[in-house]
Amino acid sequence: PLRKKGFQNGPSRTQVMFSAPHHGQRNRPGSKNARSVHEATRKCSIKPHSFTQVSENFPLASTAFLEYQGEMQASVHDRIIRLTQARAITDIELIQPLWNNYGTLSRVYLQAGNYPSVIVKHIQIPEEAGHPKGFTGDISKERKIRSYQVETHWYLHQNNNLTGHAATPKCLDAFDDGHELFILLEDLGTRGFVDALYSTSWDEITVVLHWLADFHARLMGTSAEGLWPTGTYWHLATRPEELSNIAGSRLHRFASLIDARLRCSLFQTLVHGDAKLANFLFSADHTQVAGVDFQYVGRGCAMKDVAYFIGSCLSGSDCERQESKVLDIYFTRLRSRLPAHLDAEALEAEWRALYPLAWADFERFMTGWSPQHRKLTPYSDATTERALDHVAEELLSAARSACLAAGKFIQENKDQPLEVASKGFASRAADVVTQIDIKAQAMILDILKPTFERYDLGLLAEEGEQDDSRLQKHAFWTIDPLDGTQYFIDGQDGYATSIALVARDGKTILGVVYDPANDDLYEAIAGRGVKLNAKPLQPTIPKEKAATTTWFADLSLRNHPSFENFNAHFDIRFAGGAVMNTLQLLKHWKSCYCRTPKKELGGCAIWDLAAVSLMVEEQLGNALFFDGEPLNLNRTESVFFNDSGLAFSSQGVDIHALLNQVKSLIV
Questions:
Q1: 232 and 304 in contact (C-beta within 8 Å)?
Q2: Are 210 and 341 spatial neighbours (Cβ–Cβ below 8 Å)?
Q3: pTM of the predicted model, to two decimals?
Q4: Which end of the chain has less neighbouring CB within 10 Å, N or C?
Q5: Model confidence over 414-433: pLDDT tens digits?
């Protein structure tokens, strides 16, 4: 039984969207102490659960708890008595079963000794566990087991660091008994934390925001050893099922970037990880608060806790209207608590900018977990879009700046003497490299450098040694500083600079191409179309549609054994390197760019096609392997596509019919 603070008159009151928590106690530990239990029960008209009521009210209660109806396990009983120096255990009250039938949370009343009562969290992993949303596989079970290990480590090692800063229950003991885990905690009710609230005033919201600020300030830079490497119960790496449920959405495409930006923020602390209103207990006068339930504590950006807490307290409209006030309250307190050596101004600037990303990170989980959930509001949707736009524009802006800088450098040096070297490929177009290629790439990398750290990105660049970061990181930059080098050497148009950001699954997130000879800048973001020189590029639909498909081809096609057959059935044109050839599909109805498979290594590579393939698809074209399968821009076997071949098509072309036609013409 708890004292429930209800609504009061006055404009400062806001309704709380309260529901039974996902991962912890419905009624929190320490909600009353031995002296106040009867008074609290009388005020609420709620009786403590008797052992008979347990089986009726909580049918999923673990069998281990029902065994308590008889006699508590002797070893556990004796350990509690010895630790608390009590004379006897007088009663055991079930607070609630743990989430998904993983054990119980109970209050143990003691006679004499050091504590009138203690909280016992008894964890027993069920062989089979149900789940209201159907997530019952090994991933869910392993995550839950890990969460209890983290909580135990937190209480034994990090929790004491908060003494005198942010109130939490003291851990009295944690031990195994067979295959069961017991965490013995201080009953916060004995320290005066007796109220669990289901509605809040601004004064009460402020108290929790102050607690969070104190918690984060105290734990700045603290190691997450033994905890979650990245805190929160919705962390992306632990929620692959929920992520797969939103496949194809813009949020899915940007999910890893949102996660990485939060993980890689310059200022890191430990986050509570489940800081909803239900996980805080207030003093009787509501001027102090204590936090509980540390199963998902770990390293991270503090804005995750702030956004999640506010979402548990306020409606979507109130979250929108009071956003500035919430952040002002939090940061005013935080600045007064931060260590002197930290740059408080820089920290606040970074974390304020990441607040929308924290909302988007949680929305990604909720949308995949329960798409109709009431926590998904117009405000959370709009804030998520704001975060996605911010991330996309930051990365696109970096790519745009790098592409323009390199391209203009290339154009400025087009008439200079060139040092031409060989990379050892049979194809002349793939083989040649100049000092301009090398210098242009260095310029690009210098401009993109901050994004590698801010977003934890890999790299695949045409010039220089290759590593496996594209296969290890969640996304990678791929760079072709000078595509069509042979055209550049020959003093002809047809060369370009191309930069793209590709996800580990081989799908392009965004791309930029600069055509220096014509001073044209193309850019695209997945799901947002293509822009040419900052203006949306509209698909070209001619008044009179051509009967013959135009094939924009690399010069090497002239050496193909089937060139004469191709030339008899297609209007073949040579516009430049692979990038410039593919760009023509954006402007020409019923056109294509094809590469038939070959054994010789070289030809088109990931860096050639990553940006332009996105642009073709955004203009309602297609990009496939030569066998008709979807194009994968991050194959493990090779960065080149000589073995697979490929086919791109514009609007007006049935790409599968095109592939069949090309295959039929091969000698």
A1: yes
A2: no
A3: 0.85
A4: C
A5: 888 888 787 655 555 566 67
